[in-house]
Amino acid sequence: MSQKIDKKDFDPATLLWYDAPAKEWEEALPVGNGRLGAMVFGKYGEERIQLNEETYWSGGPYSTVVEGGAAYLPQIQKYIFEGEPIKAHKLFGRKLMGYPVEQQKYQSLANLYLFFENEEEVSEYKRWLDLETGIVCTEYTVDDITYCREVLSSAPDQVILVRLTASKPGSLTFKAQLRGVRNSAHSNYATDYFRMDGVGQDGLMVNGKSADYMGVEGKIRYRAQLKAIPEGGTIKEEDDYLLIDKADAVTLIIAAATNFINYKDVSADQTARVSNYLEQVKGKSYEQMMSAAVEDYQQYFKRVSLELPKTANSYLPTDKRMAQIAEDADPSLASLSYNFGRYVLIGSSRPGTQPANLQGIWNNDMNPAWDSKYTTNINTEMNYWPAETANLSELLEPLTTMVKELTDQGAQVAKEHYGAGGWVFHQNTDLWRVAAPMDGPCWGTFTVGGAWLTNELYEHYLFTRDKEFLTELYPVMKGAVQFFMDFLVEDPNTKWLVTNPSTSPENPPKAPGYKYFFDEVTAMYYFTTICYGASIDMQILKDLFGYYIETEKILGLDSELMEKAEQTRARFVPLQIGKDGTLQEWTEDMAQMEDKHRHFSHMYGLYPGNVISVKRTPEFIDGCKKVLNQRGDGAMGFSRAWKMSLWARLYDGDRANNIFKGYLQEQCYPQLFAKCGKPLQIDGTMGVTAGITEMLVQSHEGSIDLLPALPGEWDKGQFNGVCARGGFELGFTWENSTISELKILSKAGEICRIDDGKNLKVTKDGKKIASKVNKDGSIEFKTIKGGLYRLIPK
């Protein structure tokens, strides 16, 4: 690898590399197999590899449903309509908030420490993450011996592997220690929260339980176990250390598991699970396990490639590339960011696992920021924005499963809190799939979290045309529609149908009745966000009801509810432009408390939704631009990622690219994880991947639009394997900002439409295919399922 870096013949679109170890956890490099994750510091002298298992959470199965809250809903709605939001806020907080008000926390599993002597100074240091293989490597030289460590997380074998080698036989001498993590808020002293022990002569283990939290007893039991396999030399256990002396090479195998089966069942045997994982790899060589892991990983990663222009800076260490991006063009850094987002999704969301949470599966803390949960007023949805376009449809399965599970308590919340049918879910959940409002009324009045997730799942059908999936999703969609059919109320002033209570995350209005006050429920001073008919609500519901109606037609159901849904949708409060010229954020024309607010909730309809469009609703585009310009190009990582896609939908690629560069310099860690202030989150990472796609291909208007928001710096490139709605997989090349070749694989046999395609000739198997030129300059042609089509300039 060192020779490759020096020769500049590695691919800067798939390799992150650095010339110094990580100084803090947020700089470490991740590996993951969907269930097991690790953050690798790449240190010499004392290495740390931090470990996670996706189901290690505080608490246990519990419910936050509060019976009888619906009796107070009419009074809350009356307060809001009559301009008394603080009274509504306080009543909602006392009667409709879930209990416990807070939810459970994702936990940090353990740390593997490796101690090496005589490594105070090293030379030729490098560490890297190869996105082509999913392997993290650290390499350095001490005296005349070069040491190398490889770390990967294997999906086939469900273990983490650490491989240590040296350039001279008999040169590996080190100590290994597996440490549990103490929760400082829930003291572990003299309890069974965790215990460290040796395992025979060649292993270590940590046993523990999850903490009690918010009155919920900790039900998770876990085990993490290390097994060392030296080649040459000796190994022995001493106290809670493994001592390896003068080995030629060493393979460390880390297995971990909990007793979690599902959100209602924690009856598994974590000890037996770990034993089974270790038994299954018994007798396998490192090369066999590594090859199987890489092959499994590449079945996902190899589907798509993005090539953008390279410059001299493209071959610098990644952190130095990021630091110089504003001064020197390095388009290939966008390719690397795009690929890292795919890597993170592959590493944190596999079929059968939990969905990716705020930090994917990588968490260093027992009390992480925002509990590292599933926040659904933007963050969880953003985690999955790239899933379909990046040809990773299967990785949506954990989210699909979670949404189905949320309908359980969601139906109870609908009945008890709102007196409604169907199901409802708000802005946060955890491993235990609680669905009631949480944290406080400023956040808990977001009733469309479940609706937004349902819309996200419907995208899977739009991209794949999979009717079996649509049939599976139908009850979820129907239940969401049923809830809002009962919940929506008539605005007494306009007679439009609106949500009430409502909130526009997480922005407080500046209007009569909204003032700084003390909230007894949360024991905090703040401004309330409670309102009626927030624009994001109505836009999400416009999509939801539209998708539901279309699903009824596709599946040939034509139910009575569909007719009511059509009538109800026609009465939704419409999009509005406020007196300041911006797209209105609330039904009422209210000012905002924070003019640079990080959320763009009322822009949902532009992206990721499909309510606002340059082509279909041009009368609202200036209002959208005014919002974006007013709030600026800064803020947190997820916010900048969202802005990239919003400007891409407005066909301004250079603005999107400038926001991307600012993100890299100010709201992104050196390994391309996004920041949310200080905390590491993956939402912005995934949002950037989605935003780069939107700059290069869009398909939400019913046709495929190539290079719709191409930055001037990306004047040539190649994008292969990217997916478009309608069941199409694309490969295209461009020169001088113009498409030079396009290949289309039709996976569903749909009619294919290409924007501005009148100058393209369509062929299949070398023969010309008939195409129709539409009035708008687009072309369309029939396809057959499995057919490969080639389009070139006439």
UniProtKB/TrEMBL annotation:
- Gene3D superfamilies, alphabetized: 1.50.10.10, Golgi alpha-mannosidase II (2.60.40.1180), putative glycoside hydrolase family protein from bacillus halodurans (2.70.98.50)
The answer to whether the entry has keyword Chaperone is no
For this UniProt record, give its keywords in alphabetical order, as a comma-separated list.
Hydrolase
Provide the GO MF annotations for this entry: alpha-L-fucosidase activity
- Signal sequence annotation: none
Domain of life from the UniProt record = Bacteria
Residue stretches making up the Glycosyl hydrolase family 95 N-terminal domain? 16-262
- In Pfam terms, one family for this protein is Glyco_hydro_95_C
InterPro entries from the xrefs? 6-hairpin_glycosidase_sf, 6hp_glycosidase-like_sf, AFCA-like_C, Alpha-L-fucosidase, GH95_cat, GH95_N_dom, Glyco_hydro_b
- Decide whether keyword Hydrolase is in the record: yes
Query: Where does the record place the Glycosyl hydrolase family 95 catalytic domain?
Result: 285-696
A Gene Ontology biological process noted in the UniProt record is: carbohydrate metabolic process
User: What residue stretches are annotated with the Alpha fucosidase A-like C-terminal domain?
Assistant: 698-791
Name this polypeptide is given:
Glycoside hydrolase family 95 protein
Q: Which organism is it from?
A: Maribellus comscasis
